[in-house]
Amino acid sequence: MSSIIEASSALRKRKNLKRGINFTLMVVGQSGSGRSTFINSLCGQQVVDTSTTVMLHTDTSTEIEVQLREETVELEDEEGVKIQLNIIDTPGFGDSLDNSSCFELISDYIRHQYDEILLEESRVRRNPRFKDGRVHCCIYLITPTGHGLREMDVEYMKQLGPLVNIIPVISKADSLTQEELKLNKKMIMEDIDRYGLPIYNFPFDEQDANDDDYETNTYLRSLLPFSIIGSNDVFDIGDGTIIRGRQYPWGILDVEDADISDFVILRNTLLISHLSDLKEFTHEILYERYRTEALSGDTPNYSKKNSNHTNGRNAHHGGNSAIASPSVPQAHERGENAKQDTYTAREEQIKLEEERLKAFEERVQQELLMKRKELLERENELRQIEQRLEKEHLSQ
Ligand SMILES: Nc1nc2c(ncn2[C@@H]2O[C@H](COP(=O)(O)OP(=O)(O)O)[C@@H](O)[C@H]2O)c(=O)[nH]1
Ligand SMILES: [Mg+2]
Q1: pLDDT band at 173 (very low <50, low <70, confident <90, very high)
Q2: Could you identify which of 131, 149, 356, 368 might form a hypothetical disulfide with 191, taking C-beta atoms 3.0 to 4.6 angstroms apart as the criterion?
Q3: Which fold has domain 2-317?
């Protein structure tokens, strides 16, 4: 099956070559789910530190805060195609009893990136150094419990799925037997169907897709949720062959062995075959929907909306036709005296849009102020260090 992926990826690679590729990946999962290990395995290098020990929280009254940490890695494949990979790690995710604030932080971040584009698009003079920070894919790591999805997993996908391409992945797949893994995948897909969770399920245009794409995407769909094994260690297994693996008493397990995990397929999908698709879907579908809703002044409350109009995994991301249309006033459908309504609706829209932009600008201003303050503090620190050094120097 892997030949299919390689064949269509070769085509896409050439397409990408001309542009120079920037890709932003977010990795979400509870502490210990293997986020850091996955990031390092994906990049083939130590990008983030991994903790083999669990953090101890002595003060149970304090809420554990989720953080977003960004790392940028430049990867290059055999053909010399460079990918600027921005990875957002989410330490602290899901560690509190109430995780709503962590969902909020992530969703705010993603929306903020959309807002930035929105603002940039509306500028008369574009900023040539503007950086598109939109998150193109979110890997959601599911801990291998053997019991399908947990409530938190369902909530996360329900709330964030409309904003970002979520690919669900069972981590630490080596802790399940092949039978258990199969069953677990099935249970997770059943949950995703039952709750209508809008994950990224490799959509394609029924009319446009060529046979290759059709076959590849159908195959990738059948693998969902992917299962992976990660490792921070490499081993020389003789005759100079180096593998990334996990050492167990009975032997070394190769994380790139396609028979035991989908890691290689996932890596190919993200970095080669579906990199452009994920970016396009983010821009053409997810951002476009966000934009329409933002400009129509309809503050989206996805968690509520979704429970109504998503049924089945094709509900959101499967095929363009099935995308839920944003609620734009449909005044033209009403009779004669609809004109006045239209004007009022328009005025209302413009007003809301103005308010939204104003709020956004205020937020940017606020950030600017914060950054300035930080800068001042840093300068002060620096001055103090300089003074101390000078004193030390003099006293010698
Ligand atoms: N068995 C197994 N353990 C793993 C795997 N990936 C990571 N781990 C281990 O799980 C622990 C937590 O991993 P880490 O990447 O630090 O998780 P994070 O807290 O989500 O960043 C470490 O001891 C890792 O070595 C895996 O695929 N299989
Ligand atoms: Mg970590």
Answers
A1: very high
A2: 149
A3: Rossmann fold (3.40.50)
